[in-house]
Specification:
Blueprint: H1 15-27, E1 36-40, E2 44-47, E3 53-59, H2 65-82, E4 99-101, E5 104-110, H3 122-136, H4 150-159, H5 169-187, E6 193-196, E7 205-208, E8 211-214, E9 221-224, H6 225-229, H7 244-265, H8 270-286
């Protein structure tokens, strides 16, 4: 699970999730009195310090969508570990779950020490992703298209008439026009699809003393290789043989999806607003 260079303070919003994870940890003999929030977006991710355990927590109950996402991610991670892929796996300190405590569902993962400020080389990032792809090739289940996950989620936000748009007024029309332009170009292409990580950005790549490790498998999907390459840090995509024109198009689509997603949550995070604006700049440059 991701570990940021500066852990978030446990806030009024995240405290109930942290306490739920601590309760389950204590019931399994895990000491978690120094818990620190590592990530707070779709899920709350908590290092249950001083124990080498990380909890990934969401609002969910047994069997619902959030719970199933956590369960599927665990199964994918177990498969990748068995296949020898460079990933951070589930915790061995306690049953990884999914567990339910109150209003929260959660899974437990191995804490991986790493340097969040280290520069990820193109070769290292590309090789780690290639190994994950190879392991995913043998996964026995199929996954929804990337268009049915990140992309349609962005469309629902952009074109919803039932709720006010969370996007800045000055950017909304531009994002809508870009969405229609990019997806129209994609409709004219025949895509060669495979199983992908779905979101292999720098935050999901840990640089440890033993090498590069990938995390976060809840966005695993089916799509063209270039969709994963569009998220790779630096020039990692150069380690693959791909369609440069398609890659350029999907980088635009990736920036659009990231900008929309970040702006829906930016009220609680200056960093998310900054990320959204960075991707808007990239999108305008490429348009």
């Amino acid at each position: 699970m991701p570990i940021s260079s500066m852990a978030h303070t446990i806030s009024v919003r995240t405290r109930p999730a942290v306490q739920a994870a601590q309760e389950i940890a204590r019931s399994h003999g895990i000491v978690a009195g120094q818990a620190r929030v590592l990530h707070d977006a779709n899920n709350v991710v908590v290092h249950l310090a001083p124990s080498p355990v990380v909890a990934k927590i969401c609002l969910a109950s047994v069997g619902d969508h959030g719970w199933r996402k956590l369960a599927t991610e665990l199964e994918i991670a177990r498969h990748l570990i068995r296949a020898g892929a460079p990933v951070v796996g589930p915790s061995q300190e306690l049953p990884p779950g999914p567990h339910v405590q109150g209003d929260f569902a959660m899974t437990f993962w191995r804490y991986q020490d790493h340097d969040p400020s280290a520069v990820a080389t193109s070769q290292g990032a590309g090789q780690a992703l290639a190994q994950v792809h190879e392991a995913l090739d043998s996964y026995p289940e199929t996954f929804p298209s990337f268009l049915d996950r990140q992309v349609k989620r962005a469309a629902r936000i952009l074109f919803s008439e039932s709720v006010p748009s969370p996007l800045p007024t000055t950017e909304h029309a531009f994002l809508c026009s870009q969405y229609l332009s990019i997806t129209s170009e994609l409709d004219d292409r025949k895509l060669r699809c495979r199983t992908l990580h779905g979101d292999p950005h720098r935050g999901n790549l840990l640089v440890s003393k033993t090498g590069y490790l990938m995390i976060d498998f809840e966005s695993v999907c089916s799509g063209p290789l270039e969709w994963d390459l569009s998220a790779l840090p630096g020039l990692g995509a150069n380690t693959f043989s791909g369609d440069e024109e398609l890659l350029s198009l999907l980088r635009r689509l990736r920036s659009l999806c990231v900008a929309v997603w970040c702006w829906t949550r930016s009220r609680s995070s200056i960093a998310l607003d900054r990320t959204a604006r960075n991707h808007m700049d990239l999108l305008r440059l490429a348009a």
